[in-house]
Structures are given as C-alpha cells and as structure tokens.
Amino acid sequence: MATLDLQIASRCKSIPAKSDIRKWISAALPANKNISLRIVDSEEIQALNLRYRFIDKPTNVLSFPCELPEGVDDPLLGDIVICGEVIEQEAANFNKALDAHWAHIVIHGTLHLMGYDHMEEAEAETMEKLETTILKKLGYPEPYTQQET
Fold this sequence. Notes:
alpha/beta, 4 strands
C-alpha cells in the first residue's frame, strides 16, 4: 500500500478525509511507493505555477516527480500540490459532484508522478482512459463528460 504524507495548508472546507485520499492514490499507484500531497489555497498554487510552469494563475493540481540520483533507491514517487479552492470552483462550474472531482484530480496528479502526461493527443487519450477506468472501479462517473481545462 502507498504511504501518504498529507499536508493541509488551506482554508478550504471541502478537503476529503485522509482515508479517501489514500484510497484514491492507492487505486492508481503501484504498492510500496510514497507520495507527499499538499493541499493549498490559490495564492500558494499560483506562486508555484508561475515558478515552475511560468503561468501566472491558480491551477487545480501540480505534480513534482522525485528525481533521485542514479543508484539511489527510494520509494518516494514525488509530491502533489492541489488547490482546494480551484477544485471547489471547477466542480461547481462543471456541475460535478465535489467528491468525484477531488478523486479525479488526486488520481490525475498521481498518474503524472508515474510518468503519464497529456501534452500530446495520444498521451492525453491514454491518460484519460486510465483515469476513467480507475474512477469507474471506485464507483465514480466518467470524468470527461465535460472537458475540463
């Protein structure tokens, strides 16, 4: 089972229980991996988005894969930063259940740590199919019924 280091640095009221977050990560992640997940407010994620992606606005999730030197074996997969305020707003904008959107974004960030991406159309299709499969196994609806930005 994955190990989760959960940090909450947010005023957001809809933060899911740690057990739910762990369940979502475990559904997407091979066993024996560790993840750090930090839930933040808009100001912090906007600063990170600007620093690392040169985009000066809040986003829903950022993933930072662990880059260890060659020969160093550690189960840390990386860090995920999620903005609860953006998750709440997106769920309302897309008329999605809040817990389903949280699950989707946690899984999305986890898949990024595992090397999945959506920059190219073929990559996006692969990642979206995997997200959909994982979410359906957890009892959540298709996440891309309305395209998220």
